[in-house]
Amino acid sequence: MTHETVQGNRVATVSSASDERTVNNTMRHAYRVLSEQEKAAMQDIKDMGLAFHDRIAALGNSREVSIAKTKVEEAVMWAVKHVTA
Hints:
elongated, 2 strands
């Protein structure tokens, strides 16, 4: 587990590929252990999503850009949910 400081408070963070990912999640109380292949798939999805999100953000600011970024975030969420379900 790593720690980062957010506005003066220490916040525990856990890698999403870690088997310890339940320690800072209020809603989901249990996770199944992911295979190494599933962990790699989840990381790839998140990396690709971040790259696409960053590319869209570089276009500037508009309602359309905001919607596009939200849809990328949603797509990543659903794809990761599939992998981790």
